[in-house]
Amino acid sequence: MQGGSSGIVYGGLKYQASKQPQQRLLEPSRTTCLNLFLLSQLLQARCIADVRADAGSTTFLAGTLSLKEENEVHLIRLSPAESELVCDGLFYHPNEIWDLKSCPFDHRVFSTVYTSGEGYGASVWKIPEVNGQSNSPQLEQLFELSGHTGKTRR
């Protein structure tokens, strides 16, 4: 962050961008190298994925991992000036998220691999149009693979 800013806080997660080239999170086709640190007071962010279908901006999805709290998927965008991270959506997820991936051709579709008390599963989700709403609406579950007793492979 420029000017000594400490990032932004949204939904319990603290987002901070740094332009120091310690770790590349973006593939070489993107013009910006970004380090993204996800810190949490209540929830841990286990996974982060870039939204490849959104060619107009640098966008990420982050999924939380908690056994006791509701889990969330955060839609995070790097501002056009590349000086701050903006949370474009905060969505409830019913299970403990172990991995997520974005759809390569639709920026509103992504998949999660998760565990619940009963077993393991995977789902494909669609992010609804937000259109300036103050509260993010529910994710639409397109389909689910559930009932696994062993780990779901990526």
TrEMBL record:
| Superkingdom | Eukaryota
Name of one Pfam family that matches: Beta-prop_EIPR1
Name its GO BP terms in alphabetical order. protein ubiquitination
* Residue ranges of every copy of the EIPR1-like beta-propeller domain listed in the record: 43-148
UniProt keyword annotations, A-Z? Repeat, WD repeat
PANTHER family reported for this sequence: EARP AND GARP COMPLEX-INTERACTING PROTEIN 1, WD-REPEAT PROTEIN
Q: What is this protein called?
A: EIPR1-like beta-propeller domain-containing protein
Which species does the entry assign this protein to? Miscanthus lutarioriparius
Lineage runs: Eukaryota, Viridiplantae, Streptophyta, Embryophyta, Tracheophyta
